[in-house]
Structures are given as structure tokens and as C-alpha cells.
Design brief:
Elements (H helix, E strand, L loop, with lengths): L2 H12 L7 E6 L8 H4 L13 E6 L10 E3 L7 H11 L4 E6 L9 H22 E12 L4 H9 L2 E7 L10 E9 L14
Parallel strand pairs: 1-2, 1-4, 2-3, 4-5
Antiparallel strand pairs: 5-7, 6-7
């Protein structure tokens, strides 16, 4: 099922997409779209409806999305990617980071779950770098033994954690989404351009 429908369903329950917000989406490959972030933003024509900003970081894809700033074919685990995103944001911290990253399935369930956990931690570190205090992070995970540890780590940096499984997600799928709200800010300086290493 399209990730777009999943995001819209979760937004209906949580209102994570709001007009005027600054958002950053992390996507591994074309087709993992959450373009409704752009659609949710006013065009700035009406003074009482603030215009937000949508920024996409595409890891293994090169596409265009109307109303969004695009950074393509980048490895966001590198300092170079960090610098480019910060430059694109022009010093502005973001309200929301969305991560739709998931590895290509190998068929070995435990291996696949370990790989997506690694991507989740990369998204968390990156969100800590670009998020404003009280910002939010939404990312995808496949349920497994490492998820409780991941949640405990998240609680150190976010005030509220919620696990969601949209109806648009297949019932037999282990796919879940974790919404972390109320970013507390970085408690210690980044080292070598990264947080938490």
C-alpha cells in the first residue's frame, strides 16, 4: 500500500503535518513518496496562511517534487551531506523529520530487521542535528527484538513516543511507525559532525 495513504492516515490521528512547518523527508529510493508534505503547505498567497518549507533528501534517487527542495543521491551519514542540508536550510531548524527508509528485503527476517534498525538510528542522529526544540520525528521500523531498546534510546531525547500501525499497512506485515514528539535538544556537542557516536 502506498506510503502516502499511510502518512495521511497517521496525520488524521496526530496532525503531524501542519501549514507553515519546516519539514525534511529522508527517502532511499524512488516510489517511497510522501509528497503530501508539499501538498499540505500553503503557497504563500494568503497572509494569514504561513508558507512552510519542505526539503527532501533522496539517498538513491533523483526525482523532482513540486513545492519541495530536493537533494539527490546523497549519503546522509556523511559530514558532506550534513553540511549540504544545513546550507539548504539556511540555518533554519525543522519542525518535522520524516524517514521512509527501509532496506531491500533479503528474505532473512532477522537480518532485514537489524538493517532497518541501523537506518532508524541514522535517522535519529540526523534529526537531532537539524530539528528545533520540540520538533518531531516519524520513521518506519520492522518489529523485532531491538525495537524496545530503540524506544528507550528515543525517550532520552524526545518527550513523547507513540507506536502506530496504520490500517493501510497489511495486517500480516511487521511494519510499524514510531512517532517521537517534543525533541529536547542535543545535550552534548556533536563529535566529528555526528551525534551520538
Amino acid at each position: 500500500m502506498s506510503q502516502r495513504f499511510k502518512l495521511l492516515e497517521m496525520n488524521d490521528k496526530t496532525n503531524i503535518l501542519t501549514p507553515g512547518q519546516q519539514s525534511l523527508t529522508l527517502v532511499l529510493r524512488q516510489g517511497h513518496g510522501t509528497g503530501c508534505c508539499s501538498e499540505n503547505q500553503p503557497d504563500g498567497a494568503e497572509p494569514n496562511k504561513p508558507k512552510g518549507r519542505v526539503c527532501w533528501l533522496l539517498i538513491n534517487a533523483d526525482i523532482s517534487i513540486e513545492g519541495a527542495s530536493i537533494m539527490s543521491n546523497m549519503d546522509f551519514s556523511t559530514i558532506d551531506a550534513h553540511d549540504k542540508v544545513i546550507a539548504a536550510l539556511d540555518g533554519t531548524k525543522v519542525d518535522l523529520v520524516l524517514s521512509d527508509m527501509a532496506p531491500s528485503a533479503t528474505g532473512v527476517k532477522e537480518l532485514d530487521k537489524d538493517r532497518i534498525i541501523g537506518l532508524c538510528y541514522m535517522a535519529i542522529r540526523f534529526a537531532a542535528l537539524v530539528s528545533k526544540v520540540d520538533g518531531s520525528l516519524l520513521f518506519k521500523v520492522w518489529d523485532g527484538k531491538e525495537v524496545p531498546i530503540l524506544l528507550m534510546d528515543l525517550e532520552k531525547f524526545y518527550k513523547h513516543i507513540k507506536i502506530m500501525k496504520p490500517q493501510a499497512s497489511r495486517s500480516e506485515s511487521s511494519e510499524k511507525f514510531i512517532l517521537a514528539r517534543g525533541f529536547k535538544g542535543i545535550q552534548q556537542p556533536l563529535r566529528n559532525g555526528r551525534w551520538g557516536e
